[in-house]
Amino acid sequence: MPQIGAVNVRFRTLAQAENLISSRAAALLRYPVVTVSLLVARPITIAVAGEVSQPGSYSVATDNTAAATFVPTVTRMLKQAQGVNQAADLNRIQIRRPNAQGNIQTITVNLWELQMRGDISQDIRLRDGDSVFVPAAPNIDLALAHQLADAPFATSPNKPLTISVVGEVNKPGPRTISGETFRDVDGNTVSFRAPSITRAIQEAGGITQTADVRNITVRRLTRTGPIQQITVNFWELLKQGGSTFQDLPLQDGDTIEIAKVDVVNDSEAIDIASASFSPNEIEVNVAGEVVRPGPVKLKPNTPLNQALLAGGGYNDRAKTGQVTLLRLNPNGSVEQREIDIDLKAAANSEKNPPLKNGDTLVIARSRFSTATELFGRVLNPVSGGFGFFNLIRTLFFPNNNNN
Residue 233 and residue 244: Cα distance in Å, rounded? Predict the structure, then answer.
């Protein structure tokens, strides 16, 4: 009806539009009947910001095409933004909605209620012009971190992450890691597990033997708040029934720092050496009077007596009971220790110390063996005429041998 003129129905439902047009038509008609139907809906635009992988503005089709089967809800728009990251606070997700008066209405939803209790009312339907904001969590709950990684609206677990590992690892520096695949209990279904701290440490060559596994720190950048700092205790992973929550899932840009322990506990060192975040092997050099001198591959923190046995043990010329241990320190200095080894002792710092990668063991020749070899050279008639006179001169006048 041209007489009514243009009617602004922005921000109104179809029923509200019908009522508005009917009220306008009532000035011209006694009993106006108005029916409003939607032929083609334009795409709606929704913004997603905060702790998501790809923040930005997204256009969503809502017409009668196949694409219109996508109903824009909070979780679906989070998936459109490639999922929430590990820094996200699901308790306080905000929907900012403009109204007809030009004001902004803020609606807060708690997706933990949806994730843990199935409260579908938290996953509200979005409208054109809505903005979804995901804030950073003030603190990281280790138990909830694993549940967040498994959420259907979280970042994909097989997305490659760029992280850094520094401190007491064998190969510090930046790394690119992806999630791991594993088969479910049925043996057929392949699932992904998000990259975690242990995976990153493995990629960095494993921890050193002076790593403080009780003091591992993750520094995490956020989009919307200060740097998050999370401390985990990997000794808890090694204890009977230990907490797997300590193996924190990672997000892109994380930095893992492993501190150095003040004093190495020998008994704990052996347990740590068998952990998945320790290197598979170390290389130790065995030199001097052993059956098979040269480098040997050993498990981390293998005690000295096992390295000696790996070199075949003492040969018949060896000075038994004492070994020289040479160790290259990180600052470039060389530490030399004389070990009075007890082959039957358990691993301990004094008599049977655990070894580190790059250690060298030197087994000296016994004095008896040295004297025997000397007499052999003296008395051997093929030695170039070295006779009794030379024997006397060697034994009693050693300083004159070069004259």
Answer: 10
The pLDDT score that the predictor gives to residue 392 is 45
The torsion defined by the Cα of 335, 339, 341 and 345, in degrees rounded to 10, comes to -70
User: What SS3 state is found at 361?
Assistant: strand
pLDDT one-digit tens code per residue, 75-132: 999 999 999 999 999 999 999 999 877 899 999 999 999 999 999 999 999 999 999 9
User: Is the distance from CB of 86 to CB of 161 less than 8 angstroms?
Assistant: no
Q: What is the DSSP string of 13-44?
A: -HHHHHHHHHHHHTTT-SS-------S-PPPE
pLDDT tens track for 32-59: 888 888 777 778 899 999 999 999 999 9
Q: Which of 300, 297, 308 lies closest to 269, judged by CA?
A: 300
Q: Bridge-partner residues for 312, per DSSP?
A: none
Kind of pairing between the strands at 282-288 and 360-363: parallel
Residue 11: predicted pLDDT: 73
How many residues are there in the chain?
403
Q: Please, which residues have CB within 8 angstroms of residue 132's CB and are 6 or more apart in sequence?
A: 46, 47, 48, 49, 50, 74, 77, 78, 93, 94, 95, 126
Beta strand 255-260 with 161-167: parallel, antiparallel or unpaired? parallel
Asked whether the beta carbons of 123 and 115 are under 8 A apart, the reply is no
Rounded to a whole number of angstroms, the distance between the first and last alpha carbons of the chain is: 130
For the segment 210-237, the average pLDDT, to the nearest whole number, is 92
Residues 6+ apart with CB under 8 A from 176: 160, 161, 162, 163
Q: What are phi and psi of 247, to 5 degrees?
A: -85, 80
Contact, 98 vs 129, CB < 8 A?
Answer: yes
Mean pLDDT for all residues in the chain: 84
Alpha carbon distance 219, 211 (integer Å): 18
The conformation of residue 272, written as its DSSP 8-state character, comes to: H
Residue 215 is given by DSSP the state: E
Those residues with Cβ within 8 angstroms of residue 330's Cβ, 6 or more apart along the chain or in another chain: none
Residue 17 makes CB contacts below 8 A (sequence gap 6+) with 7, 9, 36
CA 38 – CA 14 distance, rounded (Å)? 8
* Vertex 402: Cα angle to 400 and 403 (nearest 5): 65
